[in-house]
Specification:
Radius of gyration: 18 Å
Mean pLDDT: 92
Number of helices: 8
Helix content: 25-40%
Strand content: 25-35%
CATH class: Alpha Beta
CATH architecture: 3-Layer(aba) Sandwich
Structural class: alpha/beta
CATH superfamily: P-loop containing nucleotide triphosphate hydrolases
Distance between the termini: 31 Å
Bound molecules: adenosine-5'-diphosphate, magnesium ion
Low-confidence stretches: none
């Protein structure tokens, strides 16, 4: 079953075309890697899928049979799309625990029971080796780079989206933190085998842990190459010049 289908997606900022007729699909349980040189449009693609209002969009985005075209970012998120940000916002006065509970409850018809919520939260904080006091801190206030990435991953574990897009989640993580974050992602993959993941990265390391199925290469806002895993090696050896 196809989870996500993107048809001729173009994105514009002030009449400047940044994405040009992107086509891609993600099957249930698949891990798709998106690579490409700096400025090739990877983050723009992630933001456009999520419905960022910065971009004018053309084309179709279909998640699990539903068109997302007319939906806001918030509505897309409720439909099961998740984007981990390269630079998440800080919010003074909102604890992580309250923020996550609210985020979960807006997705449910009846609110989650507090005891169940706490059990789930503690379980997932354990997976990410986060101290139990972490959930009482304010959202991203005074967090280290690694803690911000872990918080993003904690959101992923708590919200259980249909499709998770990870935009350079590995950047700035040391080897140990990277292992913890990817083990968190693998934990939720095991619990929800149908979840699809799109990984945007420059590095092989995260791919060793996440076991991707397919790779696509973006250049100048368009898909220039699609392939299997050996493509990653080919890119490492010969860069992006080989694709036009
Ligand atoms: P990547 O994530 O692959 O490095 P981006 O998606 O961030 O690339 O950027 C793709 C192109 O779009 C770049 O040329 C960038 O300058 C341009 N771009 C992205 N966002 C904006 C913006 N908000 N305003 C103007 N140009 C932008
Ligand atoms: Mg980027």
């Amino acid at each position: 079953m196809t989870l996500l289908r993107v048809e001729n997606l173009s994105a514009f900022i002030e009449d400047k075309k940044i994405l040009d007729k992107i086509n891609l699909s993600l099957e249930e349980g698949e891990v798709l890697v998106i690579m490409g040189p700096n400025g090739s449009g990877k983050s723009t693609l992630a933001q456009s899928l999520m419905g960022s209002p910065i971009y004018e969009q053309e084309g179709n985005i279909i998640l699990d049979g539903f068109s997302l075209n007319e939906l806001s970012a918030d509505e897309r998120s409720k439909k099961g799309l998740f984007l981990s940000f390269q630079h998440p916002a800080s919010i003074e006065g909102v604890t992580i625990s309250n923020f996550l509970r609210q985020a979960i409850n807006t997705r449910l018809e009846t609110p989650i029971r507090l005891s169940e919520y706490k059990r789930e939260l503690n379980k997932n904080m354990d997976v990410l080796k986060l101290d139990s006091s972490f959930s009482q801190r304010y959202l991203n206030v005074g967090h280290s780079g690694g803690e911000k990435k872990k918080l993003e991953t904690l959101q992923l574990l708590m919200l259980k989206p249909k499709v998770a897009i990870l935009d350079e989640t590995d950047s700035g993580l040391d080897v140990d933190a990277l292992k913890i974050v990817t083990s968190g992602i693998n934990t939720i993959k095991k619990e929800h085998p149908k979840m699809g993941i799109i990984v945007i990265t420059h590095y092989n390391k995260i791919l060793e842990y996440l076991k991707p199925n397919r790779v696509i290469v973006l250049k100048k806002g368009t898909v220039v190459k699609e392939g299997e895993l050996e493509l990653i090696k080919q890119i490492e050896e010969n860069g992006y010049e080989q694709f036009t």
